[in-house]
């Protein structure tokens, strides 16, 4: 996870007394005049549009302080392998953080993605990485976490794209460089399988239609043009 600005004791109890006053003050500043809180869901990875509320410098500092404190408690829970608790802390941090504080919000999303990965919730991890990268499109950890999650979901082309971006941003990243070498043959193999499945489905559909006329695709010969890769179709005599 990101943002370890203090030594974390994995056995320490959550330090809510440290951030509670700031959290209460921050929560007052991110509630609209009509009383509707402009926050995100408390635990899920899906996000909603958040209205940007004008804050005084003191209110902004309090909100960011609360978000950072919740992030640190999330990191402590993560280190203690209490991933559900970590997710909850990161979600509360997102509730506290002002909508235009991109740095802390991107870190909270990426850290929550790491917690989702720890419990194999790959799709949720991808969604949180998406949010982190919307806020910071050069966030290497978010690209790496999304790449690993996409690979786990067998989304190999997407994983390759992310690993390639990591190499572009950090050329000495050995893990990403290895994946950029490893994945292209797997992507090609996957694409061939998908193409074969698609052709099989098209053949079944064609036979269903032609069957009404007492025919099947076996009555036709398909010849591939080696230059263009296209096919010509001729009826067998």
Give the structure's gist in a few sentences.
The protein has 237 residues and is mainly alpha-helical. It contains eight helices and two strands.
Low-confidence stretches: 4-14, 25-42
So what's the overall shape? Answer: elongated
The count of helical stretches stands at: 8
- Structural category: mainly alpha
Strand content: under 5%
**How many runs of DSSP E, i.e. beta strands?**
2
| Secondary structure: helix percent | 55-70%
- Biggest sheet strand order reads 1-2
Taking Cα atoms only, what radius of gyration do you get, to the nearest Å?
A: 25 Å
Average pLDDT? 80
Main sheet: strands, sense, barrel: 2 strands, antiparallel
Along the chain, the helix and strand elements come as HHHHHHHHEE
Distance between the termini: 67 Å
């Amino acid at each position: 996870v990101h943002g370890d600005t203090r030594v974390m004791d994995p056995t320490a109890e959550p330090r809510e007394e440290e951030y509670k006053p700031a959290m209460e003050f921050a929560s007052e500043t991110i509630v609209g005049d009509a009383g509707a809180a402009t926050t995100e869901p408390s635990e899920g990875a899906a996000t909603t549009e958040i209205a940007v509320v004008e804050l005084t410098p003191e209110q902004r500092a309090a909100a960011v302080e609360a978000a950072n404190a919740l992030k640190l408690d999330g990191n402590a829970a993560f280190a203690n392998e209490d991933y559900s608790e970590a997710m909850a802390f990161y979600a509360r941090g997102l509730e506290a953080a002002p909508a235009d504080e991109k740095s802390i919000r991107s870190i909270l999303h990426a850290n929550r993605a790491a917690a989702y990965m720890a419990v194999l919730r790959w799709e949720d991890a991808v969604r949180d990485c998406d949010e982190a990268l919307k806020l910071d499109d050069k966030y290497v950890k978010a690209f790496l976490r999304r790449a690993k999650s996409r690979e786990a979901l067998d989304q190999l082309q997407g994983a390759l794209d992310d690993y390639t971006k990591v190499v572009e941003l950090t050329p000495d990243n050995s893990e990403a460089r290895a994946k950029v070498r490893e994945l292209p043959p797997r992507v090609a193999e996957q694409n061939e399988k998908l193409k074969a499945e698609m052709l099989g489905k098209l053949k079944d559909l064609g036979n269903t239609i032609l069957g009404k006329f007492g025919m099947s695709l076996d009555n036709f010969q398909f010849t591939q043009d080696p230059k263009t890769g296209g096919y010509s179709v001729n009826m067998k005599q």
